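request received
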Amino acid sequence: MAVTLTVHDSQYPQRVSEQLRHGLRARRLPGKFLYDSPAQAQRWLAYHQAYAPSRTAAALLDLYQQAFQTALRALASPPLHYVSLGCGGGMKDALCLTQAIQQGAPVLFTPMDASVALVLETLLRVQPWLADLTTAPLVVDFDSRPDLSAWLAQHETPRHRRLLGCFGMLPNVDYRSFLPYLRSLMRPGDLVLLSANLSPGLYAEAVGRILPQYDNPYAHAWYTGALTSLGLALEQIHLSVQPHLLRPDGHLWQIQAVAVIQQALQLVLDGEHVALSAGESIDVFFSTRFTPEVMPEVLAESGLTLLHSWLCATHEEGLYLCARSSV
Ligand SMILES: C[S@@+](CC[C@H](N)C(=O)[O-])C[C@H]1O[C@@H](n2cnc3c(N)ncnc32)[C@H](O)[C@@H]1O
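response:
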């Protein structure tokens, strides 16, 4: 099978290189570099397979099925444009598309991700339905909050309604600017279904349960893989994974993975020398946790009206179906 992918200019090599150099000058690895190469995509898939609740808990998959069913019903069977932001391996998108195609309405499908390898993975996963879909796969970086209105509208008729699917993204982005960006991709009548990694209780009671999911050999291989691909050797870094409180009331907190440099060194990135001293640290990864109680407030602040939510039994993941608020 041959597929055609479009690469948005936000993912052109020069932009990507500049983002990386800019990030490292600020001692921060931009999140997409954890997924960017085929090797990192494979490390993430292995970690995800071993630890992410969706692949380990059939009940959670069932929750996704219910959520897609409600979302598709709420859209009342118009021609559907299903847009997946940060599609990853496309497993959840396949669940949605199966249901949508069964309903018989024509479906447009726009998978988007910064990783070429993962957009391809998604297309391979939905291959059985490709004949019934019009697809517009896009390799794009959301960090620059690109204007995608023309891309999204290209195959739509005025009757099309968009369902945005956004799973696993919210924890790893600045949600205060990303949620309004999601909203900007919606028109009146469109819906978004998004997942959040939840804190099953306030910080103090939940942290001991959540931390091991991010501090394990698969996760470490994924974090350090991104650093070694920049030229750092494993013995030059010490990686630690720590929790960090974001709101004193314990409703919002983060897990942060930080690499501490063990000896002074120089990285050479596209001709630029970045000097790192012993003891300096690089922020490699973060994952934000929200309590179920705080989520409606977080969504409302970003102009999203919560229509329906689903919590998995462990209260570690939630799904949120939202419309665009009018103001
Ligand atoms: C945790 S994974 C979730 C994948 C999939 N939606 C799922 O739930 O299985 C996050 C995805 O977002 C993508 N991503 C991360 N940062 C991105 C960015 N700045 N722009 C576009 N995609 C990004 C990654 O490549 C990865 O596929």
